[in-house]
Amino acid sequence: MSPQRSGPLCPAYPDAFFVGGIRFVGPTGQLVVTEIHDKGELVLPTGSLIAGDPTGLLFPQDFTAFTQTVPPGRYPLRLSVVRFSDDPDHVRVCAAVLVVHDAPTVHWEQALLPEQDLSELGDEEFFGFGVDGAMGCLFDASLLNHFATVLGSGEGGTAWIDLLCGSGPEPLVAGTRTVTLTGPAGEPALTACESGFGDGAYPVWFGRDDDGRITAVVVDFLVLNESEPLDPLGP
Hints:
2 helices, globular, DUF4241, DUF4241 domain-containing protein
């Protein structure tokens, strides 16, 4: 089982956010192996971040930026997934990882909204965003109204169905398949990915290096939290 710690939840196996080929045994004995998939870049005009379920962006009042920020810029986005060894077509998304600074991460902290206080959390508890549409995303807070308009356009305000779900037999967002929406200038600004095993609540982590600089922002879908690693992990 994942390591048990006192205090609020921490990432169970953060190596899996960055490294492919790590083997885990799940709670029912299934063997899974991590993979890392590049998903292009995200442009952050301000560095103020929002994470959430993109199918809910028709209601922008429900979304709030985190208190932590990153420098404005253009950053690589990667998916950490696990593939099931007994069913190679079965893939689950562990995390969406925004790579901010190429340095070892030595500390992880929960992303917080302005009204949230870590001291209110019990052991293994966390603040997270809710998912009702089996998807998650990360984007710059300055683009909230832009995406609310884009996803709410069309007849009956249902453009999000065509953009994020599609009309074909296969969903647009599933496993390693993602959908990237552009900002006002056509820049990649929001990538929707599948949320682990579906609906629920999920934390976001900010990683920092020895100097306190943010190295990564991780949307964690908690896929491995009840698993055990079979391969050595980093310190």
